[in-house]
Design goal:
By secondary structure, this protein is an alpha+beta fold. The chain is built from one helix and three strands. Strands 1-2-3 form a three-stranded antiparallel sheet, covered by helices on one side.
Length: about 140
C-alpha cells in the first residue's frame, strides 16, 4: 500500500482561517468602540454648548421681563418713557456672549414696552492657532 503524500497540508489551514477571522472581528470591535467613544464625546460637547445657550436665553428673557415691567411702571407713574433703546449682554460660556438690543416704546396692544431688535451670539475671544512647529521643510 502506498500512502498519499501532501494530505497533511490542510490540517493548519482551518486554524489559520479561524485566527484571521477572530483578529478581524476584534479589530472591528475596537474600531467600533473608538467611534462610539468619539461620538459620545462630541454629543456631550454639543449638549454642554446647547444647555449653556438655553440657560443664557432664559436669563435674557427674565431680564427682558424685568425691564418691561420697570418701563410699564415708569409709564404708569410719569406718562412717558425716558429711554428709547437698551442693550443686554448675557454670557453664554467662556468664549461667547448673547447680545440683545431692544427698542423701548409706549405700551402697545399687548401691553409690552420693549421690542427685540437684535438677538445674536457673539464670540468674545478668537482661538489662538499654534504655529510654533514648521510643518513644511524649505
Amino acid at each position: 500500500m502506498r500512502r498519499k503524500v501532501g494530505g497533511n497540508l490542510n490540517i493548519g489551514t482551518s486554524s489559520l482561517l479561524l485566527i484571521f477571522i477572530v483578529l478581524s472581528l476584534v479589530s472591528f470591535a475596537v474600531l467600533s468602540l473608538s467611534s462610539a467613544l468619539n461620538d459620545r464625546r462630541m454629543t456631550m460637547s454639543h449638549l454642554d454648548r446647547t444647555s449653556s445657550y438655553y440657560e443664557a436665553c432664559n436669563q435674557a428673557e427674565r431680564q427682558l421681563k424685568d425691564m418691561d415691567d420697570a418701563y410699564i411702571q415708569e409709564y404708569k407713574e410719569k406718562g412717558a418713557i425716558s429711554v428709547e433703546s437698551n442693550e443686554i449682554t448675557v454670557p453664554v460660556n467662556d468664549t461667547q456672549t448673547l447680545d440683545i438690543r431692544v427698542m423701548v416704546h409706549e405700551p402697545d396692544e399687548r401691553g409690552s414696552t420693549v421690542d427685540v431688535v437684535k438677538w445674536k451670539v457673539e464670540n468674545i475671544s478668537v482661538p489662538q492657532i499654534d504655529d510654533s512647529i514648521s510643518l513644511f521643510v524649505p
